Amino acid sequence: MDQRSRVIKPHLQSELPIISHGNGIYLYDKQGNQYIDGSSGAVTASIGHGVEEIIRAAVQQAENVSFVYRSQFTNQPAEDLALKLSEWAPGDLNWSFFVNSGSEATETAMKIAIQYWQEKGMSGKNKVLSRWMSYHGITLGALSMSGHILRRKRFNALLDQLPSVSAPHCYNCPLNQTYPSCQLACVHELEVAIQRIGPENIAGFIAEPIIGASGGAVVPPPGYYQAVRQICDRYEILFIADEVMTGMGRTGAKFAIDHWGVQPDIMALGKGLSAGYTPIAATLVSDRIIETIAAGSASIMAGHTFSANPQSAAVALAVIHYLERNNLVQQAQIKGDYLKDGLNRLKKKLPIIGDVRGMGLLQGVELMADHQSRKTFPLKAAVTQRVVQLAMEKGLIIYPAFGGLNGIAGDAFLVAPPLTIKQDELDLIIEIIEDVLLEVQQVCV
Ligand code: PLP
């Protein structure tokens, strides 16, 4: 047997470093190389690596019990976590359905939305509308809702629908309009789509409050979500906020949708829920939906063997306590502003940077071949991949968010370090990004 890695990796032909341990914002590989986790992995490790009290909580729960099956028992950590999430969540999102990944959380949201209308005798309402330039997960239901052409392409025959509306991306508006003279044409497009498809066929509308993996921290224009909420109410459609990437304090509010004071009917969480210490995700559901289902079939047709796993719930609960005790939601806001200022300084110096955007510690940088004319790089130039690779060689991990513009072209990356990062560490990140972009700019622009 040869010594090659047997783990199936994203790119079968390339080897990845083996990480031996992590500490704070740093990861270390077996060769002794140090990496700044400038993207918290996939925007996940939001309290940094190796936090002692999370490790203690995991061990303590393991000493009690690591697994019970959700159909046979509930357990105290899952109960406590659900209660804590109902305190964190806006409005009456008082119920938690626990799953293992963000994909499962959005797919469960889809299923609960459809079931809600069935219980009300409106079983025709079974489509979930979504936007282009979105990512809701890789399982088939979640992928059906995702407007990410590269990820859909291979499975199109199995995906039952395409997204129906454009993303609210003002820097590169897909509708070729300019805010505010556009009068939120992207929201009008949602209303037109609903009228065409027929509200009697639509269960919900799902959106990432700030577009992450497929766009690079795209923040919608003011008034967007308030208008979306009004339309959903007008046509009796549930609004599902996919907060898998943006939730749990990442953007400087508990949930990104809180920035607009809008109340979703269902919310999907993952990633930062456990800060990566264990796999757990959740679908939060409003009183109205749960009461309707309880009065009907009284059973939600979803769930997994590892749902509401006590080990994972105990870890997630410890992570939330850590966020609260260290005031990390507010810290994300303060440090995010500092990071954004630094990136904006780079934008003034480096023509390759077209746009800097985001909220809190979810910042995106969009790269342009010519930012005056907003000309993107050709796909084959693989600019995002070069930038991410070079950053890694210089000891910084950033997250690629390419394919945003029309689902194929467009180069962007996310800077989303742990919320525990210090100011001098943010300075170091900005310095390395400057180095990387200077180099790439020389070759590509
Ligand atoms: N939703 C959003 C907004 C995401 O960013 C992601 C992952 O990047 C997912 C869903 C899917 O989550 P997971 O990879 O945990 O299945």
Automatic annotation (TrEMBL):
Protein name (Swiss-Prot/TrEMBL): Aminotransferase class III
Pfam families, alphabetized: Aminotran_3
Taxonomic classification: Bacteria, Bacillati, Bacillota, Bacilli, Bacillales
Record-linked PANTHER family: AMINOTRANSFERASE, AMINOTRANSFERASE CLASS-III
Similarity field: Belongs to the class-III pyridoxal-phosphate-dependent aminotransferase family.
CDD domains, alphabetized: OAT_like
Keywords carried by this UniProt record: Aminotransferase, Pyridoxal phosphate, Transferase
GO molecular function: pyridoxal phosphate binding; transaminase activity
